[in-house]
Design brief:
This protein is an alpha/beta fold. The chain has ten helices and eight strands. The protein is globular, with a radius of gyration of 17 Å.
């Protein structure tokens, strides 16, 4: 059964919850205009959403720091270097060390083998990924991992490098690959596209609630054509989990919040 977006949003006002965590978004993004960003933050706060934002560029990192200082305990930051960005990641690592006390995680980092690319490019991605795994272990901060078209490779590297606290964001692998992460105690964040994706629904079915978080990945990965994703789309993720696990949305929010606190050490 396909879930109704407007119907779910109407129900939010009647839900009993204190806060809800969007474990991965890009509220700092340059894709939003200043007006769109401010509106998105205002609405997210109205829905009592705690946002963990992952800036992708230096400009966005600086903006995210300002936002985190303005919205204390409502906006948190993770910083890494996206696998598809060709940037001097040593500079990013320096930035992370400089602002170590202001960030709650390392990411997003990982692998993206979806577009055609050379073996050399893949090797560079793997090398960069390993550097950030080491950094997360050194700083004792969780990793937020991107794994498009490379789920099995990502899990193999994480296991080989003894990565400990891991969030596999927007995971697109199958249930057998996910099982490796589940057994390692990793977390998986569920996108709003779960309302329309049979593959995402199968993953939710096989991943225990103890390993699940909510994420919007806003402004990307919207389930609706020509509509940018927003943080409050996590209620679609929550509704999908509730439907498949046969529990109510409030229970999903409670459990995923608990998982977010355990992973990131944030205050709710």
């Amino acid at each position: 059964m396909r879930l109704n977006y407007n119907g779910i949003l109407r129900q939010i006002r009647y839900l009993n919850y204190d806060k809800v965590v969007d474990s991965h978004c890009h509220i700092d993004t340059d894709i939003y205009t200043d007006t769109e960003r401010n509106d998105a933050i205002t609405t997210a706060l109205d829905y009592k959403i705690v946002m963990i934002t992952s800036p992708l560029t230096r400009n966005e990192r600086i903006r995210a720091l300002h936002m985190q200082r303005k919205y204390i305990n409502w906006i948190y930051i993770t910083i890494g270097s996206h696998p598809m960005l060709d940037e001097p990641y040593e500079h990013v690592i320096d930035f992370i060390y400089k602002h170590e006390k202001e960030i709650v995680g390392i990411g997003e980092v990982g692998l993206d083998f979806a577009p055609p690319m050379s073996l050399e490019t893949k090797k560079k991605q793997i090398q960069k990924f390993k550097h950030f795994i080491d950094l997360s272990k050194t700083l004792k901060k969780p990793l937020i991992v991107h794994s498009r078209g490379a789920s099995r490779y990502v899990l193999e590297i994480l296991m080989k490098e003894d990565a400990e606290k891991v969030l596999l964001h927007g995971f697109s692998g199958n249930k057998d690959i996910a099982k490796i992460g589940i057994e390692a105690g990793y977390f998986f964040s569920i996108l709003p596209t779960a309302i329309i994706s049979p593959k995402k629904k199968r993953l939710i079915e096989h991943i225990p609630i103890e390993n699940l978080l909510l994420e919007s990945d806003s402004p990307a990965i919207s389930p609706f054509p020509n509509l940018l994703s927003k943080p409050w789309f996590i209620f679609l993720s929550a509704a999908s989990i509730a439907q498949i696990k046969e529990i109510n949305i409030e229970e999903v929010i409670k459990e995923t919040n608990k998982n977010a606190v355990k992973l990131f050490g944030i205050k709710l």
